[in-house]
């Protein structure tokens, strides 16, 4: 699925080295190293996350390594603030995998992931093995996690993940070793299908792009609630995920929609708010 090659068309008949991937879906540049990460997206087998060294002058790519994404249709990558964990979001089976990153080289750890969580209704993809036709006909028959964004306001490890299948924005707190604890969710109106989320650079506001009804939800963000959530869960996230995932990094399935201990928001009259707070629409 991954191989090095040279692109044709360079001056003198040479080529710029590139890395060829099967259905590359998402790219992420490391903020301080000349490293680029990519994911492969497919529904028939587990995807891959690839680390590549980039020559800053020529743009040439050299393969560092590739690891399993621990899920299918790997569509989004998120690097934590400490740059020691890369979160891979898998759409097809609603799995979120925390992959270790070498701080010096940017290469991905090739042993078991730090944590793998799956939304409860994501198990349908494993049990029923649905195909593309079923997916297009019933977009919300099972859970579909899509993007993962760290809030920019507190400097704390609050990670938000859109779930198109559940009409939710999920709130996780990430531990120092990469463990994840789900601590809340914002329930959007049924049938909207949230896909992408961005935070306003200065206002405490988040915007969610909803794919199924072509709308944008505007969510109020409570900074105090974010701080409380991180303070309560950061120290236990690593232990909780390790206890469930074990040494081999097997998947931890979240028991139910209320596994986070309650919703941080209300679906009445609009979307709930990440970290608690008011409604938008």
Automatic annotation (TrEMBL):
GO MF entries: 6-phosphogluconolactonase activity
InterPro entries: Cycloisomerase_2 (IPR050282), Haem_d1_sf (IPR011048), Lactonase_7-beta_prop (IPR019405), WD40/YVTN_repeat-like_dom_sf (IPR015943)
Pfam families named among the record's database cross-references: Lactonase (PF10282)
Compositionally biased spans, kind Gly residues: 262-281
Region of interest (Disordered), residue spans: 255-281
Family per similarity comment: Belongs to the cycloisomerase 2 family.
Protein name: Uncharacterized protein
Organism placement in taxonomy: Eukaryota, Viridiplantae, Prasinodermophyta, Prasinodermophyceae, Prasinodermales
């Amino acid at each position: 699925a991954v191989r090095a090659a040279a692109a044709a068309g360079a001056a003198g008949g040479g080529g710029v080295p590139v890395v060829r991937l099967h259905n590359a879906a998402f790219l992420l540049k490391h903020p301080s190293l000349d490293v680029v990460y990519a994911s492969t997206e497919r529904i028939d087998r587990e995807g891959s996350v690839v680390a590549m060294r980039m020559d800053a002058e020529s743009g040439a790519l050299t393969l560092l390594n590739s690891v399993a994404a621990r899920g299918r249709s790997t569509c989004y990558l998120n690097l934590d603030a400490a740059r020691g964990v890369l979160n891979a979001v898998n759409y097809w089976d609603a799995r979120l995998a925390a992959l270790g990153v070498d701080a010096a080289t940017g290469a991905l750890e090739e042993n078991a992931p730090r944590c793998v969580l799956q939304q409860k209704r994501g198990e349908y993809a494993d049990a029923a093995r649905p195909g593309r036709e079923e997916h297009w006909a019933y977009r919300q028959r099972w859970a579909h996690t899509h993007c993962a964004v760290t809030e920019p306001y507190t400097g704390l490890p609050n990670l938000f993940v859109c779930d198109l299948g559940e009409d939710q924005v999920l709130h996780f707190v990430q531990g120092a070793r990469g463990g994840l604890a789900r601590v809340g969710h914002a329930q959007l109106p049924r049938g909207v299908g949230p896909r992408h989320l961005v935070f306003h650079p200065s206002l405490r506001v988040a915007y969610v792009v909803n794919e199924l009804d072509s709308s944008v939800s505007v969510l109020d963000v409570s900074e105090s609630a974010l701080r409380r959530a991180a303070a309560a869960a950061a120290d236990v996230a690593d232990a909780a995920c390790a206890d469930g995932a074990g040494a081999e990094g097997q998947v931890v399935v979240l028991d139910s929609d209320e596994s986070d201990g309650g919703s941080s928001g209300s679906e009445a009259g609009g979307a709930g708010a990440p970290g608690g707070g008011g409604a938008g629409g």
